[in-house]
Design brief:
The protein is an all-alpha fold. The protein has one domain. It contains 6 helices and no strands.
Length: 163
């Protein structure tokens, strides 16, 4: 089961690395990158997130039960909304935010020590305000959502690997 979690993590790392390489900077969020793609290619992002979520489905639902299942439903909703021809950005972000919050509730259930990853988020987020022209401030300005998404994912993956 841990191999599924590791493969999911590798796919996320690969995608984020490609997104950074393409933009030459940290994206505002992982979710927002789907809307930077041409409409006809957005299915690639949806397929990627669907695969990442599917790999986590069994480990997360096995470990966290119904709460894991609900988290996965929100992740799949996030993946599918860009494929709908109507404007679904609002629902996309609702699903994404719900998935993030639910993932952290799962972390509390599985191994709450992984919530310590949020300390890194606090450091990165606050650095952009304490020293806005500093080396980290320039890179982190406006990237709070991206960092929060990464922290949610890292803490969830960490908790799944350590239970």
């Amino acid at each position: 089961m841990k191999i599924l979690v590791i493969v999911s993590a590798l796919l996320v790392i690969a995608y984020v690395a490609i997104a950074i390489w393409r933009k030459k900077e940290l994206p505002e969020s992982i979710s927002a990158t789907v809307y930077e793609l041409p409409r006809k290619k957005q299915w690639l992002w949806s397929a990627w997130l669907g695969i990442v979520s599917a790999l986590l489905f069994y480990p997360l639902t096995d470990a966290a039960g119904g709460l894991g299942w609900l988290t996965e439903v929100c992740l799949f909703g996030t993946a599918l909304t860009p494929l709908v021809k109507a404007d679904t950005k609002k629902w996309h972000y609702v699903f994404a935010i719900a998935a993030g919050i639910l993932s952290q509730v799962c972390v509390v259930m599985l191994d709450a020590m992984w919530l310590g990853v949020w300390m890194a988020f606090a450091f990165l987020f606050l650095s952009s305000y304490v020293q806005p022209e500093g080396w980290l401030g320039k890179e982190m300005k406006g990237k709070g959502v991206m960092i929060a998404e990464v922290v949610c994912y890292v803490s969830m993956i960490g908790s799944l690997l350590t239970i």
